[in-house]
Amino acid sequence: MIKPDGFIIPEESAKIHGITTEVAINEGEDLSKVLSDFFSDMEDADLLVGHNLQYDRKIIKRECLRTKINSNQLSKPQFNTMVNSTVFFRLPRGNGTQVINFPNFQKRTRLL
């Protein structure tokens, strides 16, 4: 959990995940420490795997810029489960063509 720095956690969000601004301030860690630990854990990885990975990479890169932390490890080869599993989620249209459906991660995991 990240310690808020210049933002508050909206009440609507806290109702969903249960983390209030107060809890995050008291129990969270500084973003730069979390990012350093994250990249340390990635050092031996040859491949990044994630669901909707390009979104996550964009957010992490933005936070690395803000904290002046090198994000080069995000350039490693990657496997995006959302994109690479679309072959299993092609739904027929009325005109005979197919449309790709992107079910959420939980539904996709259950279906696979």
TrEMBL record:
SUPFAM superfamilies: Ribonuclease H-like
Superkingdom classification of source: Archaea
GO molecular function term, any single one: nucleic acid binding
Gene3D superfamilies to which the protein is assigned, alphabetical: Ribonuclease H-like superfamily/Ribonuclease H
Official protein name in the record: Exonuclease domain-containing protein
Species whose genome carries this gene: Methanospirillum lacunae
Record lineage: Archaea, Methanobacteriati, Methanobacteriota, Stenosarchaea group, Methanomicrobia
